[in-house]
Design a protein that fits this description.
single chain; about 250 residues; mainly alpha; Recoverin, domain 1; two-stranded antiparallel ribbon; 2 strands; about 0% strand
């Protein structure tokens, strides 16, 4: 549940004393109904594992409150090279060189040069593997490089993701907590369940914080996998069938 949920509701019961102990327990008498149990850390904004045990005198049911997995991806607009303004064309020509295509290493150089100028961002720079993933997402002609239109689409996406990152870096630390990342991903069009969020944080967080390059890599991977699934799920059944070769091609290339 998000912050707004708790701002509009007060707790109906809580442990007797808010104290920094390994184990806290309470015996409560509550009328029948639906209840949300909220464990918390003693210090705010700390991540921790926990075990929650509930004993009841009468039969009761508990369920994990979770969301459906949904992606609202932007429709990719059709446009031609003539729609790209002259200043962007000039920048692309300067970055790409004589072959007029941006390779993985050239993309890494460009992106790291750009993010280094944003002093408010916490980042270790984009890795070569992250740039390969970006090229893989945008490369439509199989050249393993980005042409003018492909680079323009990627550049637009990164600018959008930069805006989302700044908007949801609530404490303006230059990085994201897992809570901020969850809000940012939802704003970016991805609604995931708890299991997926935990996996993404474990994969893309470093000491419980997510910097801009890892946030961007996470969005690239999510969008890529969702688009691949949607292409395979032509009848929109929510399931697809793959043979071993198809599975390997999809997972190794995305």
């Amino acid at each position: 549940m998000k912050k707004d949920f708790f701002l509009r509701r007060s707790s109906c019961a809580r442990s007797q004393s808010f104290i920094n102990l390994r184990e806290v327990s309470a015996r409560l008498r509550l009328p029948p109904g639906e209840y949300l149990i909220v464990p918390s850390t003693f210090e705010p904004s700390k991540e921790a594992d926990f075990i929650l045990r509930v004993f009841t005198e009468k039969m009761s049911e508990t369920n994990e409150m979770d969301d459906d997995v949904v992606a609202n991806l932007d429709v990719e607009e059709e446009f031609s090279e003539g729609d790209i303004d002259h200043s962007f064309r000039a920048m692309f020509a300067q970055l790409s060189g004589d072959d007029m295509e941006i390779s993985v290493r050239e993309l890494q150089t460009v992106l790291n040069r750009v993010v280094s100028k944003h002093r408010d961002l916490q980042t270790d720079g984009f890795s070569l593997e992250a740039c390969r993933a970006m090229v893989g997402l945008m490369d439509k002609d199989g050249s393993a490089c980005l042409g003018l239109m492909e680079f323009h689409i990627l550049w637009t996406k990164i600018r959008k993701w930069l805006g989302i990152f700044r908007d949801f870096d609530l404490d303006q630390s230059g990085s994201m907590s897992s809570y901020e990342m969850r809000l940012a991903l939802e704003n970016g069009g991805f609604k995931l369940n708890n299991c997926l969020y935990q996996m993404l944080v474990a994969r893309y967080a470093d000491k419980e914080v997510v910097d801009f390059d890892n946030f961007t890599c996470c969005l690239i991977k999510l969008e890529s996998m969702f688009r691949v699934f949607q292409e395979l799920d032509q009848n929109q059944t929510g399931t697809v069938e793959l043979n071993l070769t198809e599975w390997l091609l999809m997972t190794m290339c995305c």
